[in-house]
Amino acid sequence: MTPMHEGVSANSFDEWSRLREVVVGRAEHYTAHDVDTSWSLFYFENVAPVLADGGGGELLPIPARLVDELNEDIAGLVEALTGCGVRVLRPAPPGKEVDIASPLWTARATPPLNVRDQTIVLGDTIVETAPHIRARIFENDLLKPILYHYYAAGSNWLSMPRPALGAGSLDTAYFHRQGIDVSRATGLETAPGIDGLGLEMVFDGAQCLRLGRDVLVNVANHNHELALRWLTHNLAKLRFHRLDAMADNHIDSIVVALRPGLMLLRSPQYLPFLPKAMQSWEAIYPPLTVEPEPDYRDFGFVVPTASRYIDINVLSIDETTVVVNTHYPELIQLLEQRGLTVVPVRHRHRRLFGGGFHCFTLDTVRDGGCEDYLS
Fold first, then answer.
1. Within-domain flag for 159
2. Which CATH number does the domain housing residue 335 bear?
3. Exposed, middle or buried, 103 (CB in 10 Å: 0-12/13-18/19+)?
4. What 8-state DSSP symbol labels residue 92?
5. What angle do CA 120, 348, 359 make, to 5 degrees?
6. pLDDT in tens, 139-191
7. CA torsion, points 158, 87, 336, 114, in degrees to nearest 10?
């Protein structure tokens, strides 16, 4: 890890211009998933079979060997980024497993691994978002040394209102519109609600795609509508575009902007969700992978939280250089055929920890500015 230095303000308007500084998350003491209603709803598509089998409402242990291997792979990511000339910053390490509590609920805290979620950098403004998962409510405390560093250098720093996340805070309308029964998740609820509160602002940074002056925002329910309104009011210099329920929450395993005019898109079915100006961009459709998922039978009850498309979750160093999982050789070959330089980095257990390389990183300084790529 490169130590922090004085005088560099945050500047990150897009996903592809030359990356100068990045935060890479930590997974130490990631020993269990706290399977409450907030966690189960967030990962519902992937963990529904677990809930169907009677899991839930408890701590699901994560085997120590898998966490050790994850930490080895994160160390490889840090080494690769440093080798590309990128300054790497890390959150403060969690000292131990911690149980947290509010007046309404208790949870086992999640370490700051997927740092893309609770923070987004929009130009020179750092925005802390409003967590969906109770176990993540204090996660950004371990990023505060970094955030204060950028604030001291002149960055703006805003925080969405912190949600109480009691019963009734989370909107399940996205699932209901699709005829999906989520009672297995909502049935785990043990927390009380707050009279008169209702649905709250709940939102993750990974619901956004930054394109210079324009920011695409996935909105799947009223929680997200409130957040989009907040973003629009507080960052008036940017143009926010509402994506109408492209996914239930995150979109960075669906669409990745590699450079102006070129994107990685999971499937043509997602084109209509994008602004018309972006629908004419060249799209690279990721190929099928023939590599089987790891066999976890020897580890007992292991839960895949991330999408099976998580390896689309790549990180660009610049307009021609992208970090891709070594376990997705078909995508590496395709990107190289398109003239991109691939930095291969190993990520063995990509479905178990809720994220890929884009999720594990928060790009705080890039060369790009407030350009108009959609007009």
1. yes
2. 3.75.10.10
3. exposed
4. P
5. 5
6. 999 999 999 999 999 999 999 999 999 999 999 999 999 999 999 999 999 99
7. -40
